[in-house]
Amino acid sequence: MHTVIIERAASYDRPLVKDALIRLLEPLGGIETFVRPGERVLLKVNLLTGKAPEKAVTTHPEVVRGVIELVQAAGGIPLVGDSPGVGGLKSVAGKTGILAVVEATGARLVEFTNPQEVAGSGMFKRLALAEAYLSADKVINLPKLKTHEMMTMTCAVKNLFGTVVGTAKAGWHLKAGADREMFARMLLEIYLLRPPELTIVDAITAMEGDGPSSGDPRQVGLLLAGTNPVAVDVIAAEIAGIPKKLLYVERVAQTLGLDGADRATISTRGLPIEEARVASFRLPHISDVQFGLPPFLKNRLRHYLTSRPCAIPGKCRLCGICADACPPHAISIKDGRLVFDYHACIRCFCCRELCPDGALDVQEGKLLTFIKKFL
């Protein structure tokens, strides 16, 4: 059996968060179960892009502060790291409030550079992850609970994609992004290469709607913890009321028979899950209804069964970030406007994820619009 702990935390008030974290970890034996004196403990935060904490795009700095202080109290040496989608680590950490916490606590911000190749045992035979992640004595995974236009939800497993260094993420989107189930398998294989010792989910303010960066903050008032990221994701999705058929990571994990994928093997402690459930958690646009279709039909109907990104007139300032980030280079700037090559577009929505101005929208395929009436 796997155990996931659920604890209330009504706000990001500093003493409240610290007390909630202590209660959260008590059923798991406390932070001392995971941290020994002198160990280098990497806190893998979500630093997608440089947005203010109240936007709910990144792990909140007060959650990071609380975990740093617990690690220090146990004698550990806290390191804080990620590989942002847009911008340098120090700049993004500064805008999100995490740099100030790192400096105030005496922790250390570590760049995810120097990718190290690791042999995989699944579909992907070689994966390159940040040396700082692989070399840490212990890893504490600190995801934010958010919706995700490509994967429906991003939480514990998806947060580990940040261990892929810089522009290499675009390469993985290009290789696996056109097939969401393959992308989910890649995420799971990254997790299996170096599982974190502990996952703590920041769900005090989550993100609903068109996440992971263009959605809306949603007050949930919870922290979650567990040692198995797949099990943590299963419980997070249950709390948010996300149907399993829309959860690529969880569905693929169950197909592979991974520990933590079967709800029957997961118990919860702390706040009863019935009291933790969130009503009407708004999901992203349905971007793919190709479940179970054979490949030849997927290819033929792709443009009609998927949503696609488009610019919002008058809002896009032609900064070029989306064009630079697009894995298949399907976006260009011509005659003072964004131009999309939808035949090349793999519908990964990295452009919307990384747009600093929220200037990209979603346009539904005609057949998808018709099908949604019956979903």
Describe the structure.
With 375 residues, the chain is an alpha/beta fold. It folds into two domains: 275 residues, Rossmann fold, CATH 3.40.50; 78 residues, Alpha-Beta Plaits (2-Layer Sandwich), CATH 3.30.70. The protein contains 15 helices and 16 strands. Strands 1, 2, 3, 4, 7, 8, 9, 10, 11 and 12 form a ten-stranded mixed beta sheet that branches. A two-stranded antiparallel sheet has the order 5-6. Strand 2, helix 2 and strand 3 form a beta-alpha-beta unit. It is globular, with a radius of gyration of 20 Å. About 1% of the residues have low confidence.
Keywords:
375 residues; alpha/beta; Rossmann fold; Alpha-Beta Plaits; 2 domains; 10-stranded mixed sheet; two-stranded antiparallel sheet; 15 helices; 16 strands; 33% helix; globular
Taking all Cα atoms into account, the compactness measure Rg is: 20 Å
- Strand proportion, as a percent range, falls in 15-25%
What fold name stands as the CATH topology of the largest domain? Rossmann fold
Return residue spans where pLDDT drops below 50 for at least 5 consecutive residues.
Answer: 289-293
The major β-sheet equals:
10 strands, mixed
Helix content: 25-40%
Structural class: alpha/beta
Distance between the termini: 34 Å
Principal-axes shape call: globular
* Domain unit count: 2
Q: Tell me the name of the CATH class of the largest domain.
A: Alpha Beta
Q: Would you identify the CATH H-level superfamily of the largest domain? A: LarA, N-terminal domain
Question: Can you name the CATH architecture of the largest domain?
Answer: 3-Layer(aba) Sandwich
Number of strands: 16
Q: Overall mean pLDDT score?
A: 91
Q: Count of DSSP helices?
A: 15
